Structure formats: C-alpha cells, structure tokens
C-alpha cells in the first residue's frame, strides 16, 4: 500500500502526459499521411473560416502591437536619444520576440478554440463516426484539412501582422516622436538582417502547427454534448498557450545560434 | 392569480419565434402546447415565465404588464412559478437535495424549515431515498422527478413543463404524467410537447407550427 | 472595429448590471474564494512557468542583439527590467489569464445557459449576474495584480539566471531597479486591475445568453477568449499612452 502510493502519484501525473503526447503524435502522423491527397474544397472552406475571417483581428493585433512597441521605444528614445542603439535595441527585440508570442496567444484563442469547437461538434454529433460508417476515413475528409488550414492560416496571418505592425510603427514614430519614415525604416534595415525576419517567421510557423495539432487533439477528445464542446475549446486555448511558451523557450536558443 | 398574453410577438434576430399570441389562463386552467420543434413552444413557456422578453405585445401577470414591474416585483412573481425544464437544468455539482433547496436560498428561512420543505417536496415526487445523490447518477425519470421537486418547493401557482416526457420509456412517461397531473391540482399547468400524449390529457390544446400558426382553440384560449 | 465597439459596449453594460445586482443581492465570501481558487489559483502554475520561459527567451534575444551592437549585455539589463515591470509583465500575464480563465469561464457559463441552468437560477429568485458573474469579476480584479507580481518575478528571475549561467555575464543587472519608479509600478497596477475586471466580463457577455446547443457553446468560447485578449491589448495600450502623456 505504502510502496504503491508514490507509484500511483507518478502514474496520475505521467499517464495524462503520455496520453496527450500519443494523441498529438497520432494527429501529426495521420495528417502527414493524408497530406498528398487532401480534399481541396474542405481545405479552402477551413482556410476561409480560420484565416480570412480572422483578418480583422489580425489587423487589430498588428496595429496595437506596433503602437505599443513605438510607445515603449519612444520612452527609451527620449531618455537615451533617438538614434542611440541602446534605445532601439529594446524596441526591435520587442518586435521580434513579442510579435510572434502575442500573435500566437491571440491565434490560440481564435483559431485554436474555433478548430477544437468545430471538431468537437462533429465528434459529439456523431458525424465523424457517420463517415466511418460509409467507409470513408473521417480523418482524411474532415480532420486533416482543418489541421493544415489552421497551420497555414496562422503562419500567413503572422506574416501579415509583421507588415501591419511595421507600417503602424512607422506612422506612430512619425507622429509621436517626429521621426521621418526614412530614418525609421533605415534604422530598421540597420538593425535587422534577413535572417532575423526568417527566424521570426519560422517561429510563427512552428506556433501555428503546434496550435493546429493541440486544438485538433483537444477537439477529437471531446465527449458529451454542450459541456464537452465547451471544455474542448477551453482546453485547446490553455494547452495551445502553454505549448507556445514551451516551444518559444525551446527553439529561440536554437534559432539564435543558427542565425548568428 | 392569472396569467395572460396579449398580441405577444417574440423575435430572435431576424427569426420570428412567436407571432401575435393572445392567451388567458385563470388559476387552475390547463393547456397543452404541441407541434413540431421550432414552433415556439419553449419560447412561449419562457415568455410566460418572464425568462424571454416580448418584442411586442404584453405578458400579463395578474393583469399587470410584466415589463412595467420592478425587479423586486418580478422576482416575487417568479418565485411563485415553477418550471420543469426540457434539459432538467439540474446542477451536477450539487446533490439532489441542494438542487431542490436552490429556490429557498434567498428566502431567509431557517435551516430546519428549508430541510422540511425540501423533504416534503422530495417525498411528493418519490425521491426521498436519492436526496444525497448527484443528478448525474440518476436515471432520466429520476432527474425529471428531481426537476419537478425543485419546481414544487416554492408552492407555485403555475407549473410549466417543457417537454417533460422526452426520452422516457412509455412506463416512466406514464408515471411522470400521473405525477404532473397529481401535483398540479389546484394550480395552473402549462405543458409543451411535440405531440399530445394519451397519458397527459389536458383540458385545452394549442398547436404551434413554425411557419403559419393554426388557430384551432385560439378563440377559446 | 465595429465588432470591438459592440463587445466593449456589451461588457460595460454587463458591468453596470452586475454592480446593481450585487447591490441588491450581495456577494458571499465563499463564492469569491471559490472563484479565486478556480480562476487565479489554478492559473498560477501556468503563469509562473510560462513567464519564466518568457524571461529566458527575452534575454536570449537581447543577448543576440547586444552582441551585435553594444557588446555588453549587462548595459541593457536595467532597461529590460523596467520594460518587464511596466509592459511585458502586465500584458503577458493578462493574456495568459484571458486565455486560461476566459476560456474556462465562458465555456462553463455557456453550457449553463444552453442547459437552461441560468433560467433555473432566475426562476429560483437567484440573479445569475450576482451569482455567476460578480464573483468572477471580483476574483480576477483582485487576482490578476497578484498573478502579475508572480509572473514578473518569475520572468525576471528566469532572465537573470539565464544571463548568469548561460551567457556568463552578471545577471543581476536584469533585476536592477535603477530605472523603475513609482510611475512604472502604478502603470502596471492600473493595467492589471482593469484587465482583471474586463476579462471575466468579456468571457461572460456572450456566454450567459448563449442559445442553441453545443454549437453556441463553441462560438461563445471563441468570441469570449478573443474579446478578452483584444480588450487586454487595448487596455494595455491606452493605459501605457496615458502614463506616457502624464509623465513626459
């Protein structure tokens, strides 16, 4: 009894973890297997649903992120002088770290929750089982397109966010700090090399894939009506966020070493 | 104690759920609403109970427009209405006993008085033995009975029953019908169902359909 | 933009109705403690670990930048610490809470609405706003400032330890408060309280009126989380701009 207690505790902690890892691997493997022959229509539909309909949100996040960065950078620019690197170094690191993270978090809420809710609905309504009943693989027709669409949508939206943020930063720098656009963009070019941009985009692609996998696994695990759908969507958001922070922690040092 | 609607219209966005419904319920009257889903049965029950607000027209409680009542008056009136919900609407985190005690929570009664009232209500629906269980461990029929007990605990003068026999086997359904008829004695009973059920014969019926509403019984209603 | 105005309007309306409901019905300490545990206590682990990771990542990038231009990473330490206290800490923790607590609160309340439990409360003479929304709003308004302190400490320690152990420089500069003044702390505090008020309101606004089965629950969670996140971003920017205007 006493010797079994620690083991039991270990099991309680480890089993859900192993189960989750198994579920994620399964989703990834089955999606990759179906990648060559996906249903184009279903992909397009999901892309519109996850990507196109998130455009206003993305523009909003880009605008706010850009304005916030300039505001913070402006405080330092005033303190240290606008063209001093020290002041701007903060601003750029903010953009290239904060941008992907911020967008990842918001997308985990938007695309992740939506994807999980959709799949949970299909699952609890029995539509996934129904397809299997007429010997069609539900994964190929309904699940895999959503995984692909989530990952693609997040990566594309992230790229767009950068441009929007940079644009608003230029505008805000001009009005708030009186910095001409050419100087601002010039210092941009001084500070950032193509590799930095590539690194950030790579990061968002990883985040996008992670959100897609996590939310799909959460959606497919849903059970039992309205409450189950709600739980699945909430779980997708929480585990999506957690995985973003963890992946950020894991890949940033690798990227930093590889790119410099 | 009487309940009425006058030219009641309820819209949900672009969708019209109820169109120009005028009904009158003196104390002790019975009405069965039936018709296909989407016909507005649940909406009418909830409008009568003050849970859904009219878009146009009036819901009258004792002759007074529900919208003109203060919040306190609304709450007092609602405290004497009982509803058996389609989904049971029991809280799975609370025991059956605590579920039934919920309407008494804000009454400022002593613990002993609450306990007595809850015990009485549970005895009337035959659920005394299940008082300490959680609703998720009950069968469909027992959940319905728990819902009826909660509706009864405030001694309401009107009892609404939204699809009370859904998903029950014929024997259980007959039992629930008999219970509803028994406990609604001296109260107004308004029930909604997809089709009239032989075990629940109510004095009047009204058919509600999604597109155009039939007028059978409306004049007498 | 119109959607955003509508959602903030809905949240403001919900706030005033909730305040009125609490004036009438009061609020039990027990309900508040339950929500503090559910929404704040259960988020503490996510916030601590996430923010420690975040601090590590931030200095990794700062190190890469510093090596290119200034050569000495300890020079930017105090500035980073100030940025952490007034900007990164409050915003990132608020977004984490918006995701974690916003999602669970809106999922729970939307399923309660779909399962007619909110109607059952109303007919039982219990105001759903006082019973469900108010404890969550108060719990987050009290709890988010605490989580912000926790998260900022975790991130700064993560940063300092990384600099010391991985980069071999003096990590203490990343917890050097030479630039941090009362304005920074106030700015962070105001952000945390406002976001704490807003998150549960945004999560509940759509959820407590959700109608129509599982689909409505999914929709309520998605919009709830997104509106909570967007609200935090807007609050963060507006407060930062206001403090900038005051202190410059």
Question: What does this protein structure show overall?
Answer:
The complex is a heterotrimer of chains A (260), B (221) and C (248). Chain A contains nine helices and no strands. By secondary structure, chain A is mostly helical. Chain A has one domain. In chain A, helix 1 crosses helix 6. Chain B is an alpha/beta fold. Chain B has a domain of 75 residues. Chain B is 29% helix and 24% strand. Chain B has six helices and nine strands. In chain B, the strands form two sheets. Chain B has a five-stranded parallel β-sheet. A four-stranded antiparallel β-sheet of chain B has the order 2-1-4-5, with helices on one face. In chain B, helix 4 packs across helix 5. Chain B is globular. The two termini of chain B are 17 Å apart. The C terminus of chain B is likely disordered. Chain C is mainly alpha-helical and 248 residues long. Chain C has one domain. Chain C is built from eight helices and no strands. The longest helix of chain C is centred in the middle third of the chain and has 39 residues. The interface between A and C is large, with 64 and 70 residues.
In short:
Chain A is mainly α. Chain A contains nine helices and no strands.
What is the number of E strands of chain A? 0
Total DSSP E strands of chain B: 9
Which assembly state applies to the chains in this document?
A: heterotrimer
Number of domains of chain A: 1
> What summary fits the major beta sheet of chain A?
none
Structural class of chain A: mainly alpha
Q: Characterize the biggest β-sheet of chain B.
A: 5 strands, parallel
Number of helices of chain B: 6
Query: How far apart lie the N and C ends of chain A?
Result: 55 Å
Helix content bin of chain A: over 70%
Rg of chain A (CA only):
22 Å
**Alpha-beta classification of chain B:** alpha/beta
C-alpha geometry of chain A: globular
β-strand amount of chain B: 15-25%
Indicate the mean pLDDT of chain A.
Answer: 77
Termini distance of chain B?
Answer: 17 Å
**Compute the gyration radius of chain B: what is it?**
17 Å
Give helix and strand order of chain A, one letter per element, not per position.
HHHHHHHHH
Strand order of the largest sheet of chain B: 6-7-8-3-9
Listing every helix as H and every strand as E from the N terminus to the C terminus, the arrangement of chain B reads EEEHEEHEHHHEHEE
């Amino acid at each position: 009894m006493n010797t079994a207690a620690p083991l039991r505790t270990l099991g309680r902690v480890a089993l859900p973890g192993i189960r989750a890892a198994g579920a994620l691997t399964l989703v990834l493997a089955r999606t990759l297997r179906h990648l060559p022959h996906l249903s184009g229509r279903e992909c397009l539909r999901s892309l519109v649903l996850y990507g196109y309909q998130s455009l206003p949100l993305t523009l909003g996040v880009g605008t706010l992120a850009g304005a916030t960065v300039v505001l913070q950078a402006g405080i330092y620019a005033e303190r240290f002088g606008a063209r001093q690197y020290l002041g701007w170094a903060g601003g750029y690191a903010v953009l290239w770290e904060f941008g992907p993270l911020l967008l990842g978090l918001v997308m985990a809420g938007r695309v992740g929750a939506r994807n999980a809710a959709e799949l949970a609905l299909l699952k609890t309504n029995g539509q996934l089982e129904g397809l299997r009943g007429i010997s069609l693989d539900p994964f190929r027709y309904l699940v895999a397109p959503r995984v692909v669409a989530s990952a693609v949508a997040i990566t594309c939206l992230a790229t767009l966010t950068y441009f929007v943020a940079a644009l608003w930063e230029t505008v805000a720098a001009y009005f708030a700090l009186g910095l001409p656009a050419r100087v601002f963009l010039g210092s941009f070019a001084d500070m950032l090399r193509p590799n930095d941009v590539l690194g950030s985009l790579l990061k968002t692609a990883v985040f996008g894939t992670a959100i897609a996998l996590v939310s799909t696994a959460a959606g497919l695990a849903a059970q039992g009506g309205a409450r189950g759908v709600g739980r699945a969507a909430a779980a997708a958001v929480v585990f999506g966020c957690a995985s973003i922070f963890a992946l950020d922690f894991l890949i940033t040092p690798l990227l930093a070493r590889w790119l410099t | 104690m009487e309940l009425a609607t006058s030219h009641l219209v309820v819209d949900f966005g672009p969708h019209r759920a109820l169109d120009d419904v005028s009904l009158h319920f003196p104390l002790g009257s019975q009405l069965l609403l039936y018709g296909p889903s989407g016909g507005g049965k649940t909406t009418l029950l909830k409008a009568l109970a003050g849970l859904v607000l009219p878009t146009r027209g009036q819901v009258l409680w004792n002759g007074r427009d529900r919208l003109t009542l203060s919040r306190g008056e609304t709450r007092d009136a609602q405290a004497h209405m009982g509803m058996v919900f389609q989904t049971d609407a029991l809280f799975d985190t609370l025991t059956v006993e605590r579920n039934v005690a919920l309407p008494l929570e804000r009454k400022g009664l002593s613990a002993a008085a609450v306990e007595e009232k809850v015990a009485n209500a549970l005895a009337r629906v035959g659920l005394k033995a299940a008082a300490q269980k959680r609703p998720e461990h009950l069968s469909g029929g027992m959940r319905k009975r728990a819902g009826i007990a909660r509706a009864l605990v405030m001694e309401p003068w009107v009892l609404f029953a939204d699809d009370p026999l859904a998903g029950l086997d014929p024997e259980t359904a007959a039992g629930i019908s008999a219970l509803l008829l028994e406990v609604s004695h001296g109260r107004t009973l308004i029930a909604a169902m997809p089709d009239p059920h032989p075990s629940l014969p109510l004095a009047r019926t009204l058919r509600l359909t999604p597109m155009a509403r039939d007028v059978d019984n409306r004049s007498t209603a | 933009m119109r959607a955003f105005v509508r959602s903030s309007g809905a949240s403001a309306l919900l706030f005033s109705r909730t305040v009125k409901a609490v004036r009438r019905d009061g609020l039990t300490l027990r309900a508040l403690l339950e929500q503090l545990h559910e929404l704040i206590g259960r988020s503490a682990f996510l916030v601590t670990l996430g923010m420690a990771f975040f601090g590590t990542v931030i200095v990794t990038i700062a190190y890469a930048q510093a090596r290119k231009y200034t050569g000495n990473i300890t020079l930017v330490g105090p500035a980073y610490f100030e940025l952490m206290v007034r900007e990164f800490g409050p915003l990132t923790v608020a977004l984490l809470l918006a995701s974690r607590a916003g999602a669970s609160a809106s999922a729970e309340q939307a399923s309660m609405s779909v399962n007619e439990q909110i109607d059952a409360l109303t007919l039982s003479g219990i105001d759903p706003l006082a019973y469900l929304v108010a404890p969550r709003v108060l719990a987050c308004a009290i709890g988010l400032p605490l989580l912000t302190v926790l998260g900022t400490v975790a991130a700064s320690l993560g940063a300092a330890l990384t600099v010391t152990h991985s980069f071999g420089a003096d990590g203490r500069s990343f917890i050097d408060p030479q630039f941090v003044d009362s304005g920074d702390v106030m700015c962070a505090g105001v952000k945390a309280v406002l976001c704490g008020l807003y998150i549960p309101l945004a999560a509940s606004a759509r959820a407590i009126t959700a109608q129509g089965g599982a689909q409505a629950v999914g929709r309520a969670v998605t919009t709830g989380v997104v509106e909570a996140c967007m609200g935090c971003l807007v609050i963060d920017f507006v407060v930062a701009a206001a403090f900038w205007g005051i202190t410059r």
